[in-house]
Design a protein that fits this description.
There is one protein chain. This protein has 610 residues and is an alpha+beta fold. The protein folds into three domains: 21-173, FAS1 domain, CATH 2.30.180.10; 250-391, FAS1 domain (Roll); 396-603, Jelly Rolls. The protein contains 13 helices and 33 strands. The strands form eight sheets. The chain has a seven-stranded mixed beta sheet. Strands 19, 22, 24, 25, 26 and 31 form a six-stranded antiparallel beta sheet that branches. Helix 3 (51-59) packs across helix 5 (98-107) and helix 9 packs across helix 10. The longest helix is centred in the first third of the chain and has 13 residues, at 2-14. The chain is globular, with a radius of gyration of 25 Å.
């Protein structure tokens, strides 16, 4: 039985799945044709008008790579596209160095692990995997009469899509793709419709801390090896990918001049007056000081992770259909200790009356060298009263992957179905720390009981600490959700360094008397009394809005899916809080890190089952 279970887990680690679903289909006649060729030979075919790109592939040394088995997605520019490119750049083909030739080719190639990207998988926003130069490519759709055109990076139109070859797919484009080399401030300025925001942004000098693409202090844990083997036991090991460089990234939400004008804000002085209303009057003469109100205003618009509009909210299949509108995320902003709530549809800080600050998709996804800029539909501020008493006065369910920004910036979060990762203790810094004895695997599956389809598998004599997002002062119940199976272990939990109760046995399922789980449909009151009895024992059923996409199971109905109530805690000020777990049983026993919940105690009486 144990061998079978291990086999199932190993199989799930290798399952080929994908989170994205195409929301907008393109009504064009240029559907795919299977050529029986490779990416390289397809581009060499004279009738495809790709001779310059084929020459670049050959002379850059990429020909052998694009001629062998793989899962390549190639956006191949036509010869006419290159003629325009050379004219715009004021150069000729002969002016290109070998390094420049390689860069151009790699800008147009995505090397997939398990699949290539046909147009059916395209949606507005970034593609899941970066190109071979480690830059994201974004997709957008524009109407052309009775058809829709697909644009790559807002400028390169796909002329012929889905040309399948033996080692991937080729989409022919009409312009050379040039990922932005501009910083975020330049992108905001150049947009043309963020005049006032860019003026304020520049005054704060916040861009000074947002210039780097990589953390140069990070040490590559496995130079020369893209994958390593983690040995769990003599019978079980996993081959997983490693992160060689620590990418940095940022997202800026910005008001357009029209939005400011509608709110009666015509100039910088008007904006400063608004900022003073919400952020005080400290250091008024120093816009670069983090306590300056204008600095705080701009800071609340910035996140420390790179996210296109389709990467802000989970869009995978492990959310029940009835709960799709309830999807939400919580991110800390550059305004330290202040959260932003974003709901399905990219609705920011939604109030009980239904009002929110939206994102204007048509003016968003502006690509910088290390981030994105998105346009807002209203003025965004951190309203202390509204946030404490309304927006954040609810159960806040936070996926473990959502906490360290490094998981987003390094394409682990939501993008690792079919490719598991391990990380060194240095990657996530204070947001996720663990001792050297920890064996850690980030993996995802469309067929496992996981919130948002992913989990952190932790083994060895682990001792890890997850820094929780800062919440407003108040009294909260803290819980964590997990899937109980026999290969889990016994763990001691801590909050802010203090021991919380006795060790928790993650192996025991709901039918254990220590839990007392009874299916809702086996009760007279749809589980109401059973919920109370389980709470008295320190447990809860999992959420009714979480499902296993592969099997269609709602986790609340599963005897294996539980929440442990870690305890009730009172916080007197905005601050970070730390969830810690330590292995107290066996080196091979696993901790299943899935999601954390903050719940204000005032909300417990009205909390739903979702």
């Amino acid at each position: 039985m144990k061998t079978k279970a291990i086999f199932i887990v190993f199989t799930l680690l290798l399952v080929q799945g994908f989170f994205l679903a195409c929301d907008e289909k393109v009504q064009e006649d240029a559907f795919y044709t299977f050529t029986g060729e490779t990416v390289a030979s397809f581009c060499e075919n004279e009738e495809n008008n790709l001779s310059i790109f084929a020459r670049l592939i050959d002379e850059s040394g990429a020909h052998p790579l694009l001629s062998v088995y793989g899962h390549f997605t190639c956006f191949a520019p036509t010869d006419e596209a290159f003629e325009t490119y050379f004219k715009d750049e004021g150069i000729s083909y002969e002016d290109l160095s070998n390094e420049e030739k390689k860069k151009i080719v790699y800008d147009h190639i995505i090397k997939g692990i398990t699949m290539e990207y046909l147009s059916d998988f395209f949606e507005q926003g970034a593609l899941p995997k970066s190109n071979m130069n480690d830059r994201e490519l974004s997709i957008s759709f524009v109407d052309e009469g009775d058809k829709q055109a697909i644009l790559v990076n807002n400028s390169s139109k796909i002329l012929s899509k889905d040309n399948e070859v033996h080692n991937g797919v080729v989409h022919i484009v009409n312009r050379v793709i040039k990922p932005s080399i501009n910083d975020l401030l330049s992108v905001v300025k150049d947009a043309g419709y963020f005049r006032l925001f860019s003026e304020a942004f520049e005054l704060t000098h916040l861009i000074d801390s947002m210039m780097a693409d990589y953390d140069e202090s990070y040490t590559d844990p496995s130079p020369g090896n893209d994958q390593v083997t983690i040995v769990i036991s003599p019978e079980l090991s996993y081959t997983v990918s490693v992160i060689h460089a620590k990418k940095l990234g940022y997202t800026i939400f910005a008001e357009t001049d029209e939005v400011f004008a509608t709110a009666g804000i015509q100039n910088l002085n008007d904006l400063i007056e608004l900022a003073k209303e919400y952020y005080g009057t400290e250091n008024l003469d120093d816009y670069t000081h983090r306590n300056n109100p204008l600095n705080k205003f701009i800071s609340y618009h910035i996140l420390d992770r790179r996210m296109a509009t389709n990467s802000i909210i989970y869009s995978g299949g492990n959310t029940a259909q009835h709960a799709m509108d309830r999807r939400h995320e919580y991110y800390e902003t550059f305004l330290k200790m202040r959260l932003i709530e974003i709901k399905a549809g990219n609705k920011i800080n939604t109030l009980n009356d239904g009002s929110y600050v939206g994102v204007n998709e048509e003016l968003s996804n502006l690509d910088a060298k290390n981030g994105y800029v998105h346009a807002l539909t209203d003025v965004l501020v951190y309203d202390e009263y509204a946030m404490i008493n309304d927006v954040l006065n609810k159960r806040m369910r936070i996926d473990a992957y959502a906490i360290p920004p490094q998981l987003t910036n390094n394409n682990i979060r939501w993008k690792n179905v079919g490719e598991s990762f391990t990380i060194s203790p240095e990657l996530c810094g204070e947001s996720f720390q663990f001792n050297p004895a920890t064996k850690i695997i980030f993996w995802a599956s469309n067929g496992w009981d996981d919130h948002q389809g992913d989990e952190v598998s932790i083994r060895g004599w682990y001792d890890f600490t997850l820094r929780l997002p800062p919440v407003p002062p108040g009294t909260y119940e803290i819980r964590f959700g997990y899937n109980a199976v026999f290969w889990r272990g016994i763990t001691q939990l801590f909050i802010d360094g203090e021991i919380c109760g006795i060790p928790v046995d993650l192996k025991i399922t709901g039918d254990d008397p220590r839990v007392g789980w009874i299916a809702d449909n086996q009760t007279m009151d749809n589980g109401e009394e059973n919920d109370k009895m389980m709470r008295n024992r320190g447990y809860m059923k999992s959420g009714n809005s979480i499902i296993n996409e592969g099997w269609g199971n709602i986790l609340r109905n599963s005897i294996n899916d539980l929440r442990v109530i870690v305890g009730t805690f009172s916080f007197t000020e905005y601050d970070y809080h730390y969830f810690r777990a330590k292995n107290v049983e066996s080196e091979n026993a696993e901790f299943h890190l899935d999601f954390i919940e903050y719940v204000p105690v005032s909300h417990l009486a009205v909390e739903d089952k979702e």
